[in-house]
């Protein structure tokens, strides 16, 4: 039995050349097909369907705002960038974007639900998750939300304290209009009637106990001075076992008292 003769070099070169040409042709066809898909207007984004929360923006206004910022067609559109574009619109907290062949985008929105104003200027809002966002409070109910203030990054803490303390004022028919977390952990509240309450610092349970005691006894204390609870101007709850109270129209200095002469 004889061994097969080796294939001549020119034949091997011809076969290699043929294989390379065939591969190149296939790749060229694939590239042409991709180019056609990428350029074909049939795959352009023609419809954006917006569902979910649209209390502050209509679906039409959202489409008009976001559509000019989209680049690409059904296949090349960057979904992450599209999601970011929707979430950059005021009041939009979260957007879920999905493709639907051949040229439709389905967008489901979740809006912020504002529960308070945030910051010294009140120019930001805080949602029910304790997240701060920037938007215009244009509804009457939104403008009347409580003012929550504190150091940067503490919006969630202030919101939780508000939720703990505000219901304790129900016996007085009052609500917290402003709650501030001050330096060194001191808390200060202003009621909707204008009374300022110094709560001091401590664990949430301690602050709640102080305010509960105040709400349960201040009517009686004010009545001793022939005043209603609406006459309370300020209360200092930082005293052990009690609180100091300032009532409108009730002085703490005798009318005939003279100012003390300055010492030399």
Question: Could you name the key traits of this structure?
Answer:
disordered C terminus; 264 residues; alpha/beta; Rossmann fold; 32% helix; Ubiquitin-like (UB roll); elongated
Question: Can you characterise this structure?
Answer:
The protein has 6 helices and 12 strands. The strands form 2 sheets. Strands 6-5-4-7-8-9-10-11-12 form a 9-stranded mixed β-sheet, covered by helices on one side. A hairpin with a 3-residue loop joins strand 2 (92-100) and strand 3. The protein has 264 residues and is an alpha/beta fold. Among the domains are: 43-111, Ubiquitin-like (UB roll), CATH 3.10.20.310; 146-247, 3-Layer(aba) Sandwich (Rossmann fold), CATH 3.40.50.11690. The chain is elongated, with a radius of gyration of 35 Å.
CATH topology of the domain at 146-247: Rossmann fold
The main β sheet shows up as: 9 strands, mixed
**pLDDT < 50 runs, ≥5 residues:** 252-264
CATH architecture of the domain at 146-247: 3-Layer(aba) Sandwich
CATH superfamily of the domain at 146-247: Cell division protein FtsQ/DivIB
Count of alpha/pi helices: 6
- Give the CATH level 1 class of the domain at 146-247: Alpha Beta
Helix content: 25-40%
Give the H and E element order. Answer: HEHHEEEEEHEHEEEHEE
Give the C-alpha Rg.
35 Å
Short characterization:
This protein is 32% helix and 23% strand.
Write the layout of secondary structure elements.
Layout (H helix, E strand, L loop, with lengths): L8 H31 L7 E6 L6 H8 L12 H9 L4 E9 L3 E8 L2 E5 L5 E4 L4 E2 L6 H4 L3 E3 L5 H11 L10 E6 L5 E5 L4 E5 L3 H21 L7 E5 L7 E4 L17
Parallel strand pairs: 1-3, 4-7, 7-8, 10-11
Antiparallel strand pairs: 2-3, 4-5, 5-6, 8-9, 9-10, 11-12
């Amino acid at each position: 039995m004889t061994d097969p003769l080796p294939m001549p070099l020119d034949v091997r070169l011809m076969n290699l050349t043929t294989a390379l040409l065939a591969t190149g042709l296939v790749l060229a066809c694939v590239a042409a097909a991709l180019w056609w898909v990428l350029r074909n207007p049939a795959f352009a984004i023609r419809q954006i369907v917006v569902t979910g929360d649209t209390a502050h923006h209509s679906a039409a206004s959202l489409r008009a705002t976001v559509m000019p910022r989209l680049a690409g067609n059904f296949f090349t559109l960057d979904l992450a960038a599209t999601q970011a574009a929707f979430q950059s619109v005021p009041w939009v907290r979260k957007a879920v974007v999905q493709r639907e062949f051949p040229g439709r985008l389905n967008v489901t929105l979740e809006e912020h639900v504002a529960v308070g104003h945030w910051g010294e200027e009140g120019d930001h809002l805080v949602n029910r998750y304790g997240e701060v966002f920037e938007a215009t409070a244009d509804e009457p109910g939104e403008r009347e939300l409580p003012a929550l203030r504190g150091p940067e990054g503490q919006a969630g803490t202030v919101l939780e304290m508000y939720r703990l303390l505000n219901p304790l004022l129900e016996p007085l028919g009052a609500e917290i209009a402003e709650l501030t977390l001050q330096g060194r952990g001191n808390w200060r509240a202003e009621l909707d009637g204008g009374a300022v309450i110094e709560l001091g610092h401590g664990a949430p349970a301690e602050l709640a106990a102080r305010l509960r005691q105040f709400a349960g006894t201040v009517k009686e204390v004010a009545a001793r001075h022939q005043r209603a609870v609406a006459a309370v101007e300020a209360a200092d709850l930082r005293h052990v076992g009690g609180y100091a109270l300032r009532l409108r129209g009730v002085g703490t200095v005798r009318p005939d008292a003279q100012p003390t002469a300055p010492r030399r």
